Amino acid sequence: MLLGLEKATVRFGGRAVLDGVDLSVAEHEVVCVLGPSGSGKSTLLRVVAGLQPLDSGRVLLDGRDQAGVPAHQRGVGLMFQDHQLFPQRDVGGNVAFGLRMHGASRGEQESRVRELLDLVGLPGAARRAVAALSGGEQQRVALARALAPRPRLLMLDEPLGQLDRSLRERLVVELRELFGRLGTTVLAVTHDQGEAFALADRVVVMRDGRIAQSGTPLQVWQRPADEFVARFLGFDNVVDATVSGQIADTAWGKLPVPEGAAQGPGTVLVRPAGVRLVAADAGLRCTVAARTFKGTHVAVHLQPVDGAPRLEAACALREAPEVGETVGVEFDAAEIVVLG
Amino acid sequence: MDVSRTEVAARRRFKRGGAARLGLLALPVAFFAIFFAYPVAAIVGRGLKADGTWQFGRLVDVLTQSDIRHVLWFTTWQALASTALTLLIALPGAYVFARFDFPGKQVLRAVVTVPFVLPTVVVGTAFLALVGRGGLLDELWGVRLDTTVWAILFAHVFFNYAVVVRTVGGLWAQLDPRQEEAARMLGASRLTAWRTVTLPALAPAVAAAALMVFLFTFTSFGVVQILGGPTFSTLEVEIYRQTTEVFDLTTAAVLTMVQFMAVGAVLAVHAWTVRRRETALRLVDASVTARRPRGAGQRALLAGVLVTVAVLLLLPLAVLVQRSLDAPGFAYYRALTSDDGGTFLVPPIDAIGNSLSYAVVATAIAVLVGGLAAVALTRRDAGRFVRGFDALLMLPLGVSAVTVGFGFLIALDEPPLDLRASWILVPLAQALVGVPFVVRTMLPVLRAVDVRLREAAAVLGASPWRAWREVDLPMVRRALLVAAGFAFAVSLGEFGATVFIARPDNPTLPVAVARLLGRPGDLNYGQAMALSTILMVVCAVALLVLERLRTDRTGEF
Lengths: 340, 557
Description:
The complex is a heterodimer.
Chain A lengths: L2 E10 L2 E11 L4 E5 L6 H9 L6 E6 L2 E2 L10 E4 L11 H11 L4 H14 L15 H13 L5 E5 L7 H18 L3 E5 L2 H7 L2 E6 L2 E6 L1 H6 L4 H6 L5 E7 L2 E4 L2 E4 L7 E7 L4 E4 L5 E10 L4 E7 L6 E5 L10 E6 L4 E4 L1
Parallel strand pairs in A: 3-8, 3-9, 6-7, 7-8
Antiparallel strand pairs in A: 1-2, 1-4, 4-5, 9-10, 11-12, 11-14, 12-13, 14-20, 15-19, 16-17, 16-19, 17-18
Chain B lengths: L3 H10 L3 H32 E2 L2 E2 L2 H7 L2 H34 L5 H13 L2 H12 L4 H6 L7 H26 L2 H9 L4 H29 L3 H6 L7 H10 L4 H29 L17 H30 L6 H5 L14 H29 L5 H16 L1 H11 L1 E2 L2 E2 L6 H24 L2 H9 L4 H30 L4 H4 L7 H9 L4 H28 L8
Antiparallel strand pairs in B: 1-2, 3-4
Helix pairs in contact in B: 2-13, 2-16, 2-18, 4-8, 4-10, 4-14, 5-8, 5-24, 6-8, 6-14, 6-23, 6-24, 8-10, 9-10, 10-13, 12-13, 13-17, 14-24, 16-19, 16-21, 17-18, 17-19, 18-19, 19-21, 20-21, 21-24, 23-24
């Protein structure tokens, strides 16, 4: 393992910001830590970088305990949330900074700066002032600066956080390609699930300083570990249930669940795609409370007439009912997950 | 990257951050202990100790003397009156400089700051030339103010106009006008909007400026020494008189303690208002808030402020220059080079060389001590000890130069520290007065450097010292120059402390001016004007160079 955290704990005041976190990152792996703000993601990166001391636990890099190793000797790179480019240096000066700190010769610095600016798509920008760069360009310079000293681990704090949506979607693809080509080991944190799923080999969901779930993007998306993870991923059709056999008894009636589901009291998630609209006299009777256009489909918000919690259904554009209509709802076992 | 080799050594180094900070503080702490705390302790001992026992009754003895009570009363009320008059005259100026755009504004802003760095002796001399015996008003209309308190009050306004314009106007220019607009959209009249939105935001800055002016005028020495005559005497002047004329060191020591306590109280209030001032205000770039004056009212206000600046700030300086030239063939300037005047053991012109070399040494000391202190104080996690030291650093500024000079005189002239015969004594005293300016100029700039920039450098492989050199230093280089300039100007004009300890054969410019004024005759008077003019030009040039260097908001001064 390149990076290992063992029972890493950090307390601010009485509150544990990191609470016994165990995490490992293998060489060439891209791991994305996903969580709402205040879940301890940034602190995790600062702990690994050596900018934040641990209250207990250990950080291991290449198997060596990093206790007492200051930030500048850990050999990891960190791209800050708002880039933190040095304002008094030009683009080339920023990218060359880490190389100078490691005693690279002038010629070496120049060729590496040129190489990196080409790599991030800013060829010939070395003499530009950083204040004159757009947000996307600053982000690229920050990336080039972090990559320049060839860190054994590259960490990204909300790498695309401040950019607008279309730029973000383009850059996330570029980053993914770049890391694949360079074989960089990456630990990134973000609050944006789309970014995490697009970037990572493995996603780690954090909540209140603890790891709530860890797995490939597909695993996490298909089988959220608990209600918190499901809701954080944007699923709202979550309801208390009692499971027996292949039937879950819920406020929405008896729902079919897949074979082998955990038995007894629990929580059930119904993906919007698993909510099928049928004629008003069949299934669960609901009125349409609202509809929102999502591009590929329409999200229909349904209020069961018996007062049960609201449901969200995903409908094809042509089939979506109007607000105020009464419809019936049936459930699809393949889109239902029993949560832990 | 191969980091494994360095890991073991690095582990030992990691814990040294705190120790390094204490190391930075060691020099400033030692400097203040030896050259400030020790002399102050010596003053207390001299005042209250006799034959090895404490005599607190002396405090009462001195304070019940009627002439001392008179001095205390005058010191207090003239300071209050000066402060009120300064606010009255300077607040419209602050508004005009903050919110109006007019041709020549930048130059004028620099010009009104010149008096603040002028030596008090020059200010006194300039007002003497304007309102004193044989002065301009005397010649024109037979009006003399040098026997009244008005000369002192107006000289104080002259001196402190810039304090109010800078402190209040600086903030005013940065208040977001949209805050007032928001209030007006919610139904407030123009006046109500100003009263409920702008005034509360300005109040702490006005209070801070008023306190600073009060402090400067309460401890006024040079101005009162020259303009006060035998009638008016502040605590500072009385301490000087008791020491050099009456030779009553006990009374001088007790008076110094009284002043020390009064100043301490005022500084505590000042620190409190500064903290209040730091409440989050919406600040914007000053350049976007200024507008051209519109309408007769605004134009009249602008004209009024310009006339005030011309009469109050420029006229005295112009008269000073004119008086220095008021003899055929630059006679007064030429007289400065001859040593037959008997006032000094050397030609007065030598004072220029003395002043410059003392000021260079004092600046070096002040920048070193103040710079180290500012770096140590920058740390966000600074403990109570460090913050207490911050307040302590400000003391010499308020505690007054006379205290410093008097303290040096009685503390450093006998073993274990006998510096009486050493030339370094004068630069040390001047540096002590200059350090607070260096700290105040450097601290806000150092604090403004984002910690995360330093962290970014660390992650890229820069050691803490290297990160400071690569990230902080380039950003504060300009502030460092400004601080050095201030320390230089302050050292050059320093009078209160220097007059105690400068040796007769090595006078500085301000000391030479005061001595020339103390002697009768047109030639001495003219030479004083000529030397003052030279001093004014040197200080004004130093300041104007600084104005070009300083960024929008470097420090508090």
